Amino acid sequence: MSCSSVEGSELSEEEQKEAEGPPEATFQAGDNAEDGSARKRNRPVRSKARRMAANIRERKRILDYNQAFNTLRIALNHDLSGKRLSKIATLQRAINRISALSVFLSSNPARNGCTHRECHRPSLQPAVA
Questions:
Q1: Is residue 62 one of the residues assigned to a domain?
Q2: How far apart are alpha carbons 107 and 110 in whole angstroms?
Q3: How many whole angstroms separate alpha carbon 93 and alpha carbon 2?
Q4: Is a pLDDT exceeding 80 seen at residue 40?
Q5: In the chain, how many domains are there?
């Protein structure tokens, strides 16, 4: 990976265009400047709309992702005097909680008859989704 590709990922598209120089520099020697500029003018309008739509979708995806983590934090009953758990710490606690519940259930079988059909299926057959 080149240094310029790393730098390019950290810069906005406008900053990348400024760093590359004027748009005329991207035309090849045999290109007609008018045809090239017409293409340049039409393309950014369409790509800007697509970029804006993609940004909106990405923002919604990130909001949903963060909301899922917040729901998981609440389910884990986390309270460290108001300090929020990191995402990795949240996942690690969720794994530990699931493991502890699994051990608890396997070591303490239900004494009363369970009404869940999943509990009464034969152990040799795979679970039906």
A1: yes
A2: 10
A3: 38
A4: no
A5: 1
